[in-house]
Amino acid sequence: MLSKKQEYELITSIKGRGEIPLKFAYLGDGAKNWDAIASERTDADNGINSVEANLLRKKIHNFIASFPEVKKLNIIDIGCGNGEPIAPILDELSKQDIELRYVPIDISQEMLDLAEKFAKDNYDDIETKAIVLDFEMGNFSDVMFELKEDDYSNLLLFLGSTLGNHSGRQRVLTNFRDSMSSDDYLIIGVELTNFSKINRILPHYEGELPQNFLYFMPEHIGIPKDKTDYDVSWNDKLNQVEVRLVLKESVNVKIGAEEFTLEQDEQILLSRSVKFAEWTITKLLSEVGFRNELLTTTEDRGYLLSMVQPTRYGV
Ligand SMILES: C[S@@+](CC[C@H](N)C(=O)[O-])C[C@H]1O[C@@H](n2cnc3c(N)ncnc32)[C@H](O)[C@@H]1O
After folding, report:
1. Nearest Cα to 147, choosing from 136, 156, 158?
2. Which of 150, 248, 277, 311 is surrounded by the fewest CB atoms within 10 Å?
């Protein structure tokens, strides 16, 4: 399931930072665990996917207005998950006289398969082109460039507050910026929060579905769930929810040919989810070198969508 490079990255991050990067949880059968969570986030009244979808639907005309007279458009769904969050955009654009190509991008082939299936099942004759890549590893300007052949324009989407899961948020956004030309657009969706909401957010990380999802990789490398405690906490300094496992006894871990022991009481970070304030996300986007084209939030200021473009310095 893991490539050699991913094995080395996993070993290094466990030994170096005490962390199993969340991105590995989506690989292989982990994709099904995520799909179960995503369905719940879509169904529940306040699930963040449905909040995001409602906002996207409400503002879709404003977003599309940035592509006047476009005839061919790549909808590039970065970190696609099961593809469903993109529905508000495809619903609207598929009614118009535009040739659409759905381009899911993900580290997980299994997520890409689900996303492609969703698009093909719901949109007649839509062309799809799935791309496996790890967007933390550098820019993917070659991929974006090729997609623009035959006069296609590029609309990138980074939905579901995925940005908040990454420790190197600036690095991830820089990789996106360096993959975009000055006429490409990126729509990014993030969850906002205020301190009164924290106690309502934490239980979302505690149920059976999140645990199945987050224990997938630990169990794959030899850390049985019953030898750990599961800990969800709010990190006030970093404004993030953190999920950890704490070892109740020592365990032997095996990753590829490498074997090592984790000692009792060691803690491994399984997930972080940064919650943004309007000013922290706009500052981050601007520091990375994006100009804001459109910014909108839900009425309760709980979710934000921002449409940005790379800044052309000196122009
Ligand atoms: C939190 S889920 C969000 C999925 C979807 N956008 C949504 O809103 O439901 C994150 C997605 O990004 C993918 N992902 C995470 N880290 C990645 C990376 N470094 N490179 C490529 N894909 C990544 C995961 O496999 C997963 O499909």
Report:
1. 156
2. 150
